[in-house]
């Protein structure tokens, strides 16, 4: 079966004027237009292609990389709005339609939005939605404390950064746990800090507790080498100064330099730390 909105691995069946016809084991076929065909190929070769609907609502294959795939979230640019809805640039030739009924708020040309891609059961068309909350649920959370997860930043507030965890759950990185530049649409690895009784999930970008000491210590060592062996920061330095210059909390900084001092890799001075 050839599936819409995802990558399919298909066999090259024949070459025609429009392009290459690709097929699966069930005799389903789809066209890969000439502009997307590989430079070198033979009939019978297997190709991995993304399949979606063209302007005539027919399945078509491409070697372009979409910014979002079926049942996943992407950060997309709104390129047009008309009386039917909004249209998003999602990396393939035909734009992704987001009807008004699926817009969390009226979309504007030029703005960026978190979009969920789904297949409409009635029309069999790929459709986008900015009402993303209905595709997320914390009712049953299958995560463990300290577990590594994939996150996508959805928006920033005074509390911190709201994120989507593993494409399933809603989470939050508190502002006090953010030690680097974080923006809407960013994707990164993170760690589960804790799951509260109300099923709200707290996330951090560094491994909590002892496990985070070693990476921080290594980072400080590299910074010391780059700075010529001395950094004008110490355990009495202002927390904001440490955060701005080192990208970590004062607590993490003190733990890291404590580790380096015990390992006799640095010397603690009144005005900073020095590489041994």
Task: Describe the structure in your own words.
The chain has four domains: 7-62, Nucleic acid-binding proteins (OB fold (Dihydrolipoamide Acetyltransferase, E2P), Beta Barrel); 73-133, OB fold (Dihydrolipoamide Acetyltransferase, E2P), CATH 2.40.50.140; 148-205, Beta Barrel (OB fold (Dihydrolipoamide Acetyltransferase, E2P)), CATH 2.40.50.140; 210-275, Winged helix-like DNA-binding domain superfamily/Winged helix DNA-binding domain (Arc Repressor Mutant, subunit A), CATH 1.10.10. Helices cover 13% and strands 38% of the residues. The protein has helices at 213-226, 239-246, 250-262, and strands at 7-15, 19-23, 29-33, 46-53, 59-62, 73-81, 85-89, 96-99, 112-119, 126-129, 148-156, 160-165, 169-174, 187-195, 201-204, 230-231, 266-269, 272-275. The strands form four sheets. Strands 3-2-1-4-5 form a five-stranded antiparallel sheet, with no helix packed on it. Strand 2 (19-23) and strand 3 (29-33) form a beta hairpin. 25% of the residues are buried. The model has no long low-confidence stretch (mean pLDDT 93).
